[in-house]
What does this fold into?
Amino acid sequence: MPLWRLSIDALAGNTVPNAPSAAPVSITEASQHLANAGRAAWSWLREDAPERIAWLAAAAAFFLILRALRPRVARLVRSKKEGEASLRNVFADLVKNTWSVFLFFAALAVFAPLLSLPKAVDEVLRTMLVIVGALQAATWARTLLTSILIDMVSRKSDDYSTLANASALLRVFVNVLVWALAALFILDNLGVNITTLIAGLGVGGIAIGLAAQGIFADLFASLSIVLDKPFVRGDFITFGNYLGNVEKIGLKTTRIRALSGEQIIVSNTNLLNEKIQNFKRMIERRVVFQVGTTYSTPAEKLAEIPLWIKEAIEGVEGTRFDRSHFKGFGDSSLNFESVYYALTPDYAAYMDKQQAINIAIFKKFEEEGIEFAFPTRTLHIEPPAPALASPS
It folds into this structure.
């Protein structure tokens, strides 16, 4: 016996014997059933009109009460502050999205045991309640799943455009899933053999997936960007041989504004396949630079140069000195390597600090008479060897 029959009879308190599932009917048979139900309902009403009209009026009044309470309950439950008490807001959305036609059939189902409906009318009422109940359950499931998924995504991203794209994608997936399951449930309870239908849908889904696998790959990549957040709008990133600021994260592509001014449009799948460097998330910048002096620099000065460089770095605000050493002997210079940290990731601020350090080092070298090395080549010319005297 179909599940909806067991549910209705259990609700009414009736004992239902085991019975085979209903066989599928044609449109002609369905029309005949409806006509028989109409005649049975009229005969039933005429048998004891005053009492049964009173019960029907009570069912109608109950329906009107439920319909009037629906918006009031939604307003009462909904949180006054935006983003607060999300469970209350979800419940308010469920109440708001309850259909009036579902409330109507629910009211009839409550009063059905008291009405002693004819069998034909009872079967039609059960069938309509299954259809409307399945559609109503699908609406509730769509509301609940969409609210939960969008709440999860909103916690991952505060960018409105990215959130809107992700929300639209999630709504499409949820709608397809929920309404497909509702349709299969209704057909199954109406006696339709859905095994072949499911197999056909599976084959058709595979064919569509293969034909549009690039589009679906980009859609899921977009969702991955929103949830995993390797970058957000406004970040400065490099990927492959390109670099620039992220302007928009779309469903299929991401738009990046290059430093030279042009807009780079790259598919989300290809972008995620690249190695991405996100400079916006740099906490501090590590800087390594070298200074070279000439080979004529006195030995006692070589030991003092690292101290001068340290003093120059610490004299600039927003830096943290790490080390400075006489690194080695070059072809035409004595090389010193120094490392410090710029405490801000901003590139322009880093260049300002490096400029101040370079000027301080230059002034100190000038005061101490130290020469900076530059590529030079010394040519030593030897006099020719004396010619050997001839034997004569």
